[in-house]
Each structure stands twice: as C-alpha cells, then as structure tokens.
Amino acid sequence: MVNRKDLNPEASPQAAFGARIRRSREAHGWTQEALSTRMGVSSGHISGVETTRKSSSLRFAKAADVVFGLVGTVDTFERQWHEMHNGSLLEGYPEYVGYQSRAAEIRLFESGIIPGVLQTQEYANVLADSAVQRGDITSDQASERVEFLIEQQSTLVRTPPPLIFAVLDESCIRNPIGGPAIMDAQLARLVEFAGQSNTSLQIAPYSMAERKPFIRLVYLLTLPDRSLMSYVESQTQGNLDRGLSSVLPLVKNYHQLQIGAASQAESVAMIEQLRKGIL
C-alpha cells in the first residue's frame, strides 16, 4: 500500500487508539474513505487519528463504537478515549457521567463557579483556559475538557427528560468569571434553565452561613430503578459512591439545603437584579 505508515501501539495511548482504529477498519475490509462515510468524518481525519497526527474526540470514539458494533460492550472506543484523557478529568467523573446520562433525577450543589451541566460554552472555555495558564492541564486537555462538558450536557436532552434540582451557592452568581459579557450570558442561561418544566433552581444565599451542609460540588443521582449514588469533589479528587450508608446522609442534607435556600422565584429575581446591577 502506498504511503502506509507503520504504527507502534506502544508508543503512546493515542498511538494505541489509532492502531486499534486501523485494525478494526482493516478487519472489515474498509478503506479510510469507506470508514469516513460510515462515521461522518473526513478520510483525512481517519488517517490523522490512525497515525496520531490528529487527536480523536469523544464524538469520534462514539461514532467508531456505532460503526464497529461496540456500543454496550465492555471494550468500547469511548471507554478507551476516557482512559486516554483522564489527565484532564478527576477520577470517577467519566464513570459518573455515564450514570448521569441514565438518571431519572439529578440533584446538585456547587459553590464558587456555575456547575458544568449549567455552563455556557464561553464560560467553560474561560475556566479551561485559566487551568492552562496555571499549568494544571495542556491546551489539548482544555479543549477535551470543554468537549466532554458539551457531550455531558447533551445527554440530559432526552425523552423523558430527567428531573434536575440545582442549588447554587450565592458565590456562583457573584463570581464574575470571564468578565461582564460572558457572565451576563451565563446568568441568562440560568434563568432559561429555571423556566424549564423538568428543572428547579435555587440560590443558597450568603445569609445561610453555617447552615449550608456542603461547601464543594455534590451530585446526587436517582436511577430508574430508584437506587441512589453520589459524586463529590475536592480540589484534586472525585469520589463516586453507591453505598446507601454514605449516600443517604447526603440526600438528607440536600433536603435541608433546599428548605433553607431561596425559592425559585426569589432566586430568579435575585439573578435578574444582579444582571441589572441592582443587587
């Protein structure tokens, strides 16, 4: 074959991914052009991923799983992609997102920044870029982080939609991430979210003080079989937990948080006043 580049799967995780794409393609007797038609990407992109000249995306990995019949199996390209990109995501988070995509109810709390599922892409870009400037992640990982976030948000648009309960610390709406324009668009997104039929938005005001049971991000999921799980984060670690003895106290604390927080009407009014510069 003309211009065929030899691959070394052991050179890097990206090389292993690309070599597997080539093996799978050739096992089906497909050219790069034939695979590109099936996956909806250019043949040049197929070639680039196979030879590591181009990065694969989560969307690319999912499309490969569909084409090669791997959806629902253990050894998917999506799983390999997550393993390859865990450097930009906290431990347990990709697994959590998999459960979130099937959850019947989602409860979340965040402090300091708008939680990922409610972020605009511009807001998310600012956070990712700041992580690059701090040296926490690379530029490629920043792009992957934002792409993963957009994919995560897309899993919540389904029929029937999950019930989503969001309680945000007041600091989330007052912390001017990205400047006035980006922050105003982000606050508008929160108002839009509150207006949906399957959502609830509350602001936990500063006046709750020590009565707030959480100080960092908390996600609580109710799955279709009514089982519960939690995902909580520290600055450097994420923890996914399915044990009732540890999840139920978080659920109880979340209910107490909702009781003490401002109502949705009060919360939306607070956001609108903040946008107008009144609050």
Could you describe the 3D structure shown?
Residues 21-77 form the HTH cro/C1-type domain. One of its GO terms (molecular function) is DNA binding. This is Helix-turn-helix domain-containing protein. InterPro entries: Cro/C1-type_HTH, DUF5753, Lambda_DNA-bd_dom_sf. It contains twelve helices and six strands. The chain is α/β, with parallel strands linked by helices. The radius of gyration is 21 Å and the shape is elongated. Helix content is 49%, strand content 12%. The model has no long low-confidence stretch (mean pLDDT 90). Strands 3-2-1-4-5-6 form a six-stranded mixed β-sheet, with helices on both faces. It has two domains: 13-87, lambda repressor-like DNA-binding domains (434 Repressor (Amino-terminal Domain), Orthogonal Bundle); 99-118 and 152-276, Endonuclease, Chain A, CATH 3.30.870.10. The longest helix has 17 residues, at 244-260.
Give me some keywords for this one.
279 residues, alpha/beta, Endonuclease, Chain A, 2 domains, six-stranded mixed sheet, 12 helices
